[in-house]
Amino acid sequence: MVTKISGCAQEAQGLVAATGLAARHIIRSGEWTGHTSGTAPHYVQGNLVILPAALANDFLRFCQRNPKPCPLLAVSEPGDPRLPRLGEDLDIRTDVPAYRVWRKGELIEEVSDIRHLWREDLVSFVIGCSFSFEQPLIDAGIPLRHVQEGRNVAMYRTNIQTVPAGPFHGPMVVSMRPMSPANAIRAVQVTARVPQVHGAPVHLGDPAQIGIADLQKPDFGDAVAVLPGEMPVYWACGVTPQSVVMEAKPEFCITHSPGKMLVTDLLDGELAFS
Amino acid sequence: MVTKISGCAQEAQGLVAATGLAARHIIRSGEWTGHTSGTAPHYVQGNLVILPAALANDFLRFCQRNPKPCPLLAVSEPGDPRLPRLGEDLDIRTDVPAYRVWRKGELIEEVSDIRHLWREDLVSFVIGCSFSFEQPLIDAGIPLRHVQEGRNVAMYRTNIQTVPAGPFHGPMVVSMRPMSPANAIRAVQVTARVPQVHGAPVHLGDPAQIGIADLQKPDFGDAVAVLPGEMPVYWACGVTPQSVVMEAKPEFCITHSPGKMLVTDLLDGELAFS
Known about the structure:
2 copies of one chain form a homodimer. The first copy, chain A, is of the alpha+beta class. The first copy, chain A, folds into 2 domains: 16-130 and 248-271, 3-Layer(aba) Sandwich (PSTPO5379-like), CATH 3.40.1640.10; 133-240, 2-Layer Sandwich (PSTPO5379-like fold), CATH 3.30.2040. Chain A has helices spanning 20-28, 53-65, 131-139, 145-148, 181-192, 239-248, 268-271, and strands at residues 43-52, 72-75, 99-103, 106-111, 122-128, 154-161, 171-179, 203-204, 231-236, 253-256, 262-267. In chain A, a hairpin with a 2-residue loop joins strand 3 and strand 4 (106-111). The longest helix of chain A has 13 residues, at 53-65. Chains A and B meet through helix 5 and strand 8 of A and helix 5 and strand 8 of B.
């Protein structure tokens, strides 16, 4: 189904709050368990991975070695549910709309609060997400088809290998946005300025070159058309670390549910260099 | 004929001077009338167009309206052969290795000194040239095939129309460099930082989209191979203003000879913003 909505698709159909803090308070209260696309415009959102301390150092090294798919915004102290760099009044156990709980790589349950699962050895990783560069692209006059059509962005497993660390290894996942060559050139410039939200694209053009067999069959998200005269543009995707963690089958792990992110107090503009 | 030279092809086969000023003194003496590729590394070089004052205002507006193909580095006062913004001891009548003299769009002669042709109404325009962004590309680890093969870059007339001013109008000429998609992405970032030497590319990929019928038949310069897995990347080219001036058939005009540029005292780094 294609829903055409002029302007920002998300505003018509999701939670909107004035600030990251206001969004987190609504989410903490349990009133909103849905996606955060368009929530608190201009505030940075992040992907969440929570791991036991025994694995946290390996995962930290994995992120350091793979900054494009895993741009780390913050890492917590073990057992501490706060992330003061991302917001003063922030509790990682309650402030995400929905969490996925994994044991040995198996999805066990989806919950909206993880206080009952909290352990003194858990470390939280918050990783930049492409929501923070989509608004600058739109602001630069570059239309994004999946936003116009109210769909999730198309994501693909590639043959680009991440640099391994400990048990963490596997292919990079990319998101794809079709655009004219002139807009692709401008999109490189706009996104190169935000390395903490994946930065410049990793590939342009031919999908086969990075191991994508069929653009119309994404591994995650929704397919969108690539029109004549357009080229597909591929960015490293924050689904990569989740995919890598699932492959490593840690004894225990918690992530956010897809599209239901942590909303922080950072402004998108704070991530850009000029 | 393909001449393969490792490293910088130009150093082995052209004039090399320590500074722009030193290069101009050698050229002024008449000792060097050849190309300036690789001459005075890291010093900005420029394309030259000299027009009678009656046409100069139209041409100035043309450059203002078409900054990508016509990035103006300096404009002289009428009748003044100096360009102090580009070098203290600079005489535009003697400091270019070779000049082309045109009347009503016809090439009349090629000379190495234009003092005998100088008039009190002549205005000099110096326009940025892609030499100034090729070194940063090479420094960024992006190989340029025409440099490796000791050839001139391939240039093409396109169907991209310039914005007209007075008698000046016509298609944009582009230069093309083949590279991997990953290098194309980095090349956008590197060249976006130097808007005074054409800036970011104007097109990527399919040549037909900008009216190029056959990449192996450039309108100017030498063809180079586009290898499997590479994409052609197109930049606005300083041949555009020359092409446009010739179309306008001014009663009198002087340009530099192709590849034989004005070497200035500006450093390439002075043109970059960060």
